[in-house]
Structure prediction request, 78 residues.
Amino acid sequence: MGGIAVAGPSGLLAWSENLRLLDQREAQLAALQKERSALQNKVALLHPDHADPDMVGELLRSQLNVVHPDEVVIKLDD
Prediction:
């Protein structure tokens, strides 16, 4: 019984590994929450009743590859 308490899947030896995994999951969760917040903002800007003209123009240009003659296109690496 004592061996399981020390070396088992939830024993003392696995404690540090579990804490490391918890830290990784919390970091992943924070990144996903940040991405979700950005997507919610983008969706709100594209709401059909009150779409943001700048966002609509940006999406149209990126999806249709259309630019005005006086614009300069700078490609950024993602």
